[in-house]
Amino acid sequence: MIKNKKTKNILLLCIALIIIVALIGLMTNFNKDSKYYAKEFLEIVTNPEDLESTRYFRDVFDSEGTGQYSIEEYGESMEKDYGDLMTDRGFDSAVSNRFIPWDVLIREDVNYKVEVDSVDIIKMGDYEDGRVHYGYSISLRVSFSDGENEAMTVSGDIVMAEENSQWLVDAFRGSSDYQDLYKLLLPNPKTEVEELPEAEELPEAISTEEDLWINTGEEAIVVIEEVEITGEITSTVSRFEWPRESNQANFEIEGSKYAYYEDSIILKIEDAWILFSRFEDWARDNDIEISGGFMSIGYDMSYEVTIFGDLNREEINKLTEEIMAEVKEDEDYEKNKDLIIEKVFKENGITDPEKINAAKDKLIISK
Is the whole model's pTM more than 0.90, yes or no? Predict the structure, then answer.
């Protein structure tokens, strides 16, 4: 009887211990809310040194294609290190917009070192669909090889979504203060490991109201009367850029006169009339592929997030292509540029005035 009583007490004690352990587990899981997993993700992003994907990144990108790993293996390591913490949408967007991996922390071919001092996170609000929005800030120290140091903070947004009872990162993006960091690092001579190669000079070219014309180096044996003179070069730019304004050249020829000659233009250089062909003809003759004629749209990459937010590369390309299509059809596109940008953005569901104004200010369009 005593033995049975003792056995019963031991059994009750074991049950009590199991219940206590279970309760502790439940309490632990309860405490691991969306904020816990958001901070866990940020800890991984800001401490990438020991990640498998970091090793692969350095091998694939820093070896200039001579490393032992393939780009496919790098992609698999990224999914392993980051993908398990993110929704498919969040992962694809963060990779496309280069928010992960944070390359300034893992690159080895630079003369700076970025160290993270602290990571702070604060809840900003809840979405109607159950997602939770947090703001984050990361305090950094940047050390340059010449002994200079800089302290700065970058910030951004992280949105958490619950899938199958698990909190995952659904959106991860940086704010405009990332631009200050990249401006400090990327264009700064202190980050250069090797001397950059000199930029190549462009061909000699002139621009008129109708087109861009390239020097063929051929002399036209003609006699041009004064009444045949069409225009005169009134301004110049450097040989490292195309002339954009009417009567402009990218070489020192200001004051020279030009005239139309058959399907080309001839420009008076010293005592000779030199033949200039249309840009499209020159490109074709030199096997240079061009798209959409002499027309382009561009922007400083450091403003990409400010303009396009968390859009992926395909979505950004779609936007810019639609803008260019509108520009191509608008003879007065310079005057209507802002209206074109706003129209295309809104047609694609982007109504945030900050993004639209940033696009108006930062997108560079030439035609």
Answer: no
Q: Report d(CA 27, CA 36) in Å as an integer.
A: 14
* Average pLDDT for the chain: 79
The number of domains in the chain is 3
How far apart are the C-alpha atoms of 208 and 231, rounded to whole Å?
Answer: 8
**Domain limit, last residue, from 135, 168, 191:** 191
b/e code 283-299 from CB counts within 10 Å (16+ = b): beeeeeeeeeebebbeb
Query: Does residue 172 share a domain with residue 50?
Result: yes
* Rounded-to-integer distance, Cα 205 and Cα 185, Å: 34
User: What is the length of the chain?
Assistant: 367
* Cα distance between residue 297 and residue 363, in whole Å: 7
Please say whether the beta carbons of 82 and 53 come within 8 A.
Answer: yes
Has residue 17 been placed in a domain? no
DSSP assigned state of 191: G
Beta strand 248-249 with 235-236 is parallel
Q: How confident is the model at residue 27 (pLDDT cuts 50, 70, 90)?
A: very low
96 CB-side CA count, 13 A: 18
Residues 84 and 163 in one domain: yes
Radius of gyration of the chain (CA): 30
CATH (domain of 158)? 3.10.450
Report if residue 5 sits inside a domain: no
pLDDT at position 28 is 43
* pLDDT per residue as tens digits for the range 324-360: 888 878 878 888 889 999 999 999 989 988 889 888 8
Are the CB atoms for 215 and 274 separated by under 8 Å?
yes
Quickly tell me which residue has 């096997």 as its tokens: 287
